[in-house]
Hints:
Chain A is mostly helical. In chain A, 76% of the residues lie in helices and 0% in strands. The mean pLDDT of chain A is 95. Chain B folds into two domains: 1-111, Rna Polymerase Sigma Factor, Chain: A (Orthogonal Bundle); 121-179, Winged helix-like DNA-binding domain superfamily/Winged helix DNA-binding domain (Arc Repressor Mutant, subunit A, Orthogonal Bundle). Chains A and B meet through helix 1 of A and helix 2, helix 3, helix 4, helix 5 and helix 6 of B.
Amino acid sequence: MRTDHLVRSLAADGAAVRRPEAVLPAALIAGALVSAALFAAFLGPRADIAAVATAPRFLLKFIETLLLAATASLVMLRLARPGARPAGALLLLAPALLAAAIGVELATVPREGWWMNLTGKNAMVCLVSVPLLSLPVLAALLVVLRRGAPSRPWAAGAVAGLAAGGLGAALYAAHCTDDSPLFVAAWYTLAIALVTAAGALLGGRLLRW
Amino acid sequence: MSDRETELAALLRAANAGDAAAYARLLEAVVPLLRMAARRHLVRAGMDTSDAEDLVQETLLAIHLKRQTWDPARPVGPWLQAIVRHKFVDALRRRGRHVHVPVDDLVDSLPAEAAEEPVAHEVARHLGGLPRRQRDVVQAIAVDGASIRDAAARLAITEGAVRVALHRGLAALAAKLRH
């Protein structure tokens, strides 16, 4: 085919387009609504949620996970845009906050309590629930990324997994009675790592262009 | 910022808002830049330049399908270069080569004078493998030069159906070229 002929057909297909940034909020809301429905159907909030609603360690779980979701979403958008700097340092914010929380925990909880706080009561529920609650959000983010043009598809998928894992973990945090930063660092991190790995695998397959 | 950068940015901004005429002018301005870059890229990689035009067409399809990823607050040059680099590296890898050849100064370089319209084969070859309606629509609009309305009348389908088939056909062509 002649190139001017191809150009003619591209121009005929030249409708207005929407940037990935513009579709991200709707996709995030749609994914999060499905996850919230799963949460309501299978987990639900912990029984004593009203009593702990203002407890710093309980609230910190939401701040950490939502901070991860927000920063990973921003980095994901950068990775989807050709020629943009990835701004990966943003991803260090949530781990830095978690590290600070661990410092406070270790300074205030006697040594005998560390192991109990780390292992908690819900480790397996956490490892299963967080990835399942994250999947609808991951699917929505991959749809957004398909509009993008990531030069490293697996990396973009992995960061989408981080963002989805952060949102899934924030939902799960309302159910979980383990509030220690030690528990969050061990089990939330492992669960989110699983979602990140799934995102990398899916991204490598679905986001090539 | 160069004159060409300013011009391309204005055209792409209008194109992404749905201005078809601006979009056609943008693509026409980009084609000579891509041709020169493709030829230079293949030469530097020590490869035959006879399929340079296939590289140009594959890159054009990528620009088309990813034009929404341009941030209007940023210059067009680096964005375009990143797409070109991605497609060129990918194309050479498929040809069995793993080389890194820099793609530089795309927007600010002077395009070579085109002697005649070069030929490319890959898009035409894959056109035959598309579902019938997509193939008919792409054929009518690209090769025969029909408008959306003409194509609709000729194929006895709605203009909306022509638009959908055209978009899907172009996306399918881009996907086939990747394999």
